[in-house]
Design goal:
This protein is α+β, with helices and mostly antiparallel strands. It is built from 27 helices and 26 strands. Helix 16 packs across helix 18, helix 21 packs antiparallel against helix 27 and helix 25 runs parallel beside helix 27. Strand 19 and strand 20 form a beta hairpin. The N terminus is likely disordered. It starts with 27 loop residues before the first helix and ends with a helix. The strands form seven sheets. It has a six-stranded mixed beta sheet with strand order 21-20-19-18-24-22, with helices on both faces. Strands 12-13-16-15-14 form a five-stranded antiparallel beta sheet. It has a four-stranded mixed beta sheet with strand order 1-4-8-11.
Length: 834
């Protein structure tokens, strides 16, 4: 199927081989060879100049009507089709209906920087195909290209022809008022319309598209294009790449104590109008002209956005925000709030979360700490995005007249953002926001109130009990808008709290990956009510390596234990019934021992290797249980396989499953862990820790701190940094690992558990187990049944006892029962699945 020309609809017959054909894998020699081929095939240009007056008004003293245009004289000796067509043009008294198709393309190397204009002329059956090559490093040829781009026209003729200026009658048009209804075209050769744009060709060139992104003309873009050409040549020669300058500057606010400036690259545009996104954030002392003009007695920080896609692989600064403050003025935070008192919207409201980060890190003036947190700013900013309009809406709701204020009447939120703001009005009161200060704030102080609201909520977030909210927001297979908005806001406030002086650190962390701070907050919520009886040594025993077992941390996804694994929230009635009954039984043994006065204390620190048989724990990578046993409370650190993370859970001796665990723990782990803790608790209390827990040769050592590097001017991945939350902390005591029971007893239990063919089941609270069932339990060596509520149901017989499985005295009866219950559950699953 033939395609038409964009203008005259002549058949297009552009062959791909006429263009320069480059591959990313080409060597420089291959690129140069291709450019030389295209140059050899180009029609030679013998002369070029700019001419005027191509159109004359015959009704007004021959005054010129047309603008200037480029005249290109070429050598057509090797292109007879073009020579014949130009001959016909010169022989005609009127313009000929020549169909024209034009197309620009760009080709660059260190030797040639070419603008190639491909042309097809068609007149009846005759077709002329050729292209012109312009060397853009030549100033005269750049002037010709600017003229062609500006006028959209080009005059072309045979350089060997007579330089005769011809007069041709042109029909009048509606575009030019003609008193006598006649126009005459005065020209040499053929005047054509060049529909294709050189600027458009540059916009498709990876190297040069930035230079024409926000330009008014090709003439205005030449300095930028030449700059990039020189830089690419320098890089080829081994020099560093110099990015386009931050050449526009504006003061956002300034007092005698503090100043805030924004500089941006005019090549890209003003970020206040087009946004601050699509960049990588860098924080340092600044590179703009404003940052370079440092004054004695002043400190400064600069947050810079660098684009990674404009001129890959180089990072190009798009904008830079510079905060400067007088050292003698003290804390820059109150000084900045004072500077915002002048009027509302002196700083764009969508910039407020980013400004809060700069101000808070300026308070410590710790550039290393600020650099470690800078990757968090983009996610934190997204999470806080709905908060700013929510604060403004809350202010406007106090008085209907406020909504008509000129500063707010034009504020329109898109439906998606409005839905998030509406949800926040429900969530914010739960986070302790009463709106009282917001309602009392005059509009001119609203900028300051937005920052104060962020600050107050960040300070308050660690003091609130958020377990129910977190579980509701996280407990969904497909997160909806409310879950994403709520968790995003919580994450943002948690991160913002770490930027404040003396940030909250209840888990006594020293250096952590900043991406794990939201997880540490969720971890704190799990055990916040259980931290009161702990001293610093106990906390450090549980938490000193809590962040060491996680895989590579990024802000692209939430960092939680078991990342990438299903949470397995489906109910399993068989599992729940058997484990609940077993836990009830085990805890009844503890109650009996306490009543007899034979109970041993369940206190101290011990770390237990998870024995074989706990298949669900093994599936989820639970390798050890580090336990801090207090009076009636066990705090259990799940030590997971490398890359899966870790978590601390509180457990009290009850047969019910702690509801708070379901915030972060898979269902299969919840039930297996409940059974394991009840079993080990029974064995310690009823038998004594020394009788069931045996030290191993493995000794746990705290991990050392991580080193980090710095990025270069290339757009390389940033190294994984760690931030300091607390000061120097004492190293925790080395935790000796223990085996649960002896190796011989565990081997016997593994064989013996297959002889336990029945299972423990619940009875109504006032029912008693029969004496036959009690005798059976005693023969099996299991703990005796409680007075009421449980019985033992005999299962099918899978064989008879052998000398290896005949009942022997076992100390770790809790482990025996737990493994027997798990074996029964696994066999039930096999029977169900066939």
């Amino acid at each position: 199927m033939e395609r038409g020309f964009p203008s005259q609809c002549a058949p297009m017959s552009f062959e791909r081989e006429r263009y320069p054909n480059f591959l990313e894998s080409d060597t420089i020699d291959e690129v140069l060879a291709e450019q030389e081929r295209v140059l050899r095939q180009a029609v030679p240009i013998r002369s070029m100049k700019i001419v005027r007056g191509d159109l004359l008004n015959m009704g007004n003293d021959f005054s010129p009507l047309g603008a200037t245009m480029a005249e290109i004289l070429v050598d057509v000796s090797d292109n007879p089709e073009l020579a014949a067509m130009l001959d016909r043009v010169r022989a005609s008294a009127r313009p000929l209906p020549i169909a024209v198709f034009s197309q620009w393309t760009i080709s660059r190397s260190e030797r040639h920087w070419l603008a190639l204009l491909y042309l097809n002329f068609e007149l009846g059956p005759d077709v002329a195909k050729f292209h012109l090559a312009f060397e853009m490093r030549d100033a005269k040829q750049r002037a010709m290209l600017s003229q062609i781009e500006q006028s959209g026209r080009l005059l072309i003729d045979d350089a060997a022809s007579d330089p005769i200026v011809q007069m041709r009658v042109v029909a009048p048009t509606d575009l030019i008022s003609m008193p006598r209804g006649q126009m005459v075209e005065r020209m040499r050769g053929l005047s054509i319309e060049v529909i294709s744009s050189i600027v458009n060709a540059f916009s498709y060139a990876d190297i040069f598209k930035l230079a024409v992104l926000h330009t008014t003309s090709l003439e205005a873009a030449w300095p930028r294009l030449l700059f990039l050409d020189r830089q690419m040549t320098a890089v080829t020669g081994g020099a560093d790449f110099s990015a386009p300058p931050l050449d526009e500057h504006a003061a956002l606010t300034a007092t005698r104590h503090i100043e805030l400036y924004i500089s941006f690259c005019s090549w890209y545009g003003n970020p206040i109008a087009i946004g601050f996104g699509n960049v990588q954030l860098i924080i340092d002392r600044g590179i703009s002209a404003v940052a370079a003009a440092r004054r004695p007695g002043w400190q400064q920080l600069a947050l810079r956005g660098e684009n990674l896609t404009w001129i890959a692989p180089f990072a190009v600064p798009a904008w830079e925000i510079v905060l400067a403050w007088k050292t003698s003025s003290g804390d820059p935070w109150p000084r900045f709030l004072e500077a915002l008192d002048a009027k509302f919207d002196s700083i764009p409201v969508d910039l407020m979360p980013m400004i809060y980060f700069i101000i808070q890190v300026a308070r410590t003036n710790n550039l290393e700490l600020a650099d470690a947190w800078v990757d968090a700013v983009r996610q934190y900013e997204i999470g806080l995005m709905p908060l700013v309009p929510a604060v403004v809406e809350a202010w406007a709701s106090a008085d209907p007249q406020r909504r008509h204020h000129p500063a707010l009447s034009t504020m329109q939120l898109n439906p998606e953002l409005q839905a998030k703001v509406t949800f926040l009005h429900t969530l914010l009161p739960i986070l302790g926001e009463t709106y009282s200060l917001i309602h009392a704030t005059p509009l001119e102080h609203m900028d300051k109130m937005v920052l104060l609201t962020i600050d107050a909520m960040a300070r308050r977030i660690w003091t609130l009990d958020m377990r129910g909210i977190i579980r509701a927001l996280l407990d969904t297979d497909a997160p909806d808008m409310q879950a994403l908005t709520g968790i995003g806001l919580l994450d943002s406030l948690i991160v913002a709290s770490a930027w404040q002086p003396n940030p909250p650190n209840p888990l006594l962390q020293q250096r952590i990956p900043p991406q794990l701070l939201p997880f540490l907050y969720f971890q704190h919520q799990l055990i916040r009510c259980d931290l009161a009886p702990l001293d610093a040594g106990d906390v450090r025993y549980l938490t000193h390596d809590l962040t060491e077992q996680f895989g590579p941390a990024t802000f692209a996804h939430r960092m939680l234990p078991w990342n990438g694994m299903q949470r397995d929230t489906l109910p399993d009635a068989e599992r729940e019934e058997q484990i609940t009954a077993a836990v009830y039984w085990l805890l009844d043994q503890v109650t009996r021992a306490q009543a007899k006065g034979s109970a041993r204390p369940a206190v101290g620190r011990f770390e237990i290797e998870v024995p074989p048989g706990f298949t669900d724990l093994a599936h989820f990578g639970v390798e050890r249980l580090r336990i801090l046993a207090l009076d009636g409370l066990l705090l259990v650190r799940l030590v997971l396989a490398p890359g899966m993370g870790g978590i601390i859970l509180p457990w009290v001796p009850l047969s019910s499953v702690p509801a708070s665990w379901r915030m972060l723990v898979p269902e299969a782990v919840i039930w297996s862990l409940t059974l394991a803790l009840a079993a080990v608790y029974r064995d310690i209390v009823c038998e004594g820790k020394e009788q069931v827990l045996y030290p191993t040769a493995h000794v746990q050592h705290p991990h050392g701190s991580h080193t980090r590097g710095r990025s270069s001017n290339l757009a390389l991945p940033r190294p994984s940094a760690r931030v300091r939350l607390g000061g120097a902390l004492a190293q925790p005591a080395k935790a000796t690992r223990h085996e649960w029971s002896t190796a011989e007893e565990r081997e016997y239990i593994q064989k013996r558990k297959h002889g336990v063919k029945g299972k423990v089941v619940r009875l109504p609270a006032h029912y008693h187990a029969s004496q036959e069932q009690r005798d059976l339990v005693e023969r099996l060596g299991l703990p005796e049944l409680p007075e009421t509520g449980l019985t033992y149901r005999r299962g099918h017989t899978r064989g008879t006892d052998t000398p290896e499985t005949v009942a022997k005295p076992i100390r770790a009866k809790g482990l025996l029962l737990a493994l027997g219950v798990l074996d029964s559950i696994n066999h039930s699953r096999k029977d169900t699945t066939g």
